[in-house]
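Allow me, if you will, to draw on your knowledge of protein folds for a short while. I am sending you one protein, given as its amino acid sequence and as whole-number tokens for its backbone shapes. Kindly check, if you would, that the fold set down in the tokens agrees with what the sequence suggests. The record follows directly beneath this note:
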Amino acid sequence: MIAYSEKTATFLKTVCEEYPKNNYIDPKNYENYSVKRGLRNSNSTGVLAGVTRVGTAFGSYMLDGDRMPMDGKLMYRGIDILDIVNGVLDEERFGFEESVYLLLFGHLPNKEQLEEFETVLTELRNLPEHYVDDMILKAPSPDIMNKLSRGILALYSYDDNPDDTSLTNMLRQSMEIIARVPIIVANAFAVKRHKYDNESLVLHHPQEGLSLAENFLRTLRRNGEYTLAEARLLDICMILHAEHGGGNNSTFACRVLSSSGTDTYAAVSAAVGSLKGPKHGGANIKVMEMFEEIASNVKDWKDEDEISDYLAKIIQKKAGDGSGLIYGMGHAVYTQSDPRCNILKQYAKDLAPKHGMLDQFELLETVEKLTPSVFAKFKNDTKTIASNVDMYSGLVYKMLDIPPELYTPIFAIARVSGWCAHRIEETIYGGRIIRPAYKAVLQNVKYTALQDR
């Protein structure tokens, strides 16, 4: 960490103390000017900002002007995610590459098309010459998401045609990024362990004939070993995280940048930065941090009253990270259920006894069960609240022996396919730069000469 002088520290302290006096915005302004904070309508639905054929998620329906809860649905190019997952499971094969093909090109591939696509991804995944030395080994980062964002942005420098926004070039760039991101993440984590955790540095090259999920586990682990069951579970997780409509924060960030005409690397790198946030993809880490805190402070994990009391402390900002949020609960779209959560919860339930984590699973399940009533009591809000994908994804990754630092990067490895699909769609069909308005709540102030201030 850079050591600042006392003069710099004093300056920062002074300007921070003065900031509220000169920059305060009265919350009433948002109501007075009918501002749709978070680009949300009054009924919590998203403001319509565009149209898409990539994917959609919905978890409510409108009845006489009211938003009514329903079981959530997630569709990739019009196909229910449950059908995709079940199809892959029934055929006992890996399915993430198929999902990527579907999202990028708009239809399911036949066997020959899928095999050809997998061959192309294998060819494109190799990192450019000197990239690992210059971009991974140098300037290690304690946060893999920041390293990934920088790593994707740096690929621009190794591209002979980086700014071309033709369909052919964007598809080529997209496939390269999708293929390379798992290797970047695994290598960045190895360097992080070496630099910050004093562990030996071990880097593995990807192996031909393996799926993206298999190669990620192989390059991640020091001994390169994994089981078929582990790889298939990770593959399912990646399918579930690959896409979630154009309005989620990271995808919208990618579309906003793409609407300006910028390059693919800049747009996707921005999406990574968005996904890192604890209110978005970073919530899966927050769930596990919250779980550890609850587990440490609740003496009897079977006592629902004691658990409820601690959840109340979190909501009242007397415990937790001070945000008042119970991570893993609630969603901007889903009301009664998140289809991704339902699938991961079942995996967690099945695997927990085998990994000696049944008590941990049951504690999470109790938190899921009790949160709505605690929320209603202390927030005076009876809206339907269900668990989201982050509630059980961290526990599943823990069972896969994946370190917490990689929970959100794995989300990014999967979601980059959705980002790229939306970027291409926005660039080709969007037509206008995305430019919402902000109401200025300023008073006219006369400029004063320096000597008179």
About this structure: The chain is about 55% helix and 5% strand. The CA atoms of residues 22 and 450 lie 18 Å apart.
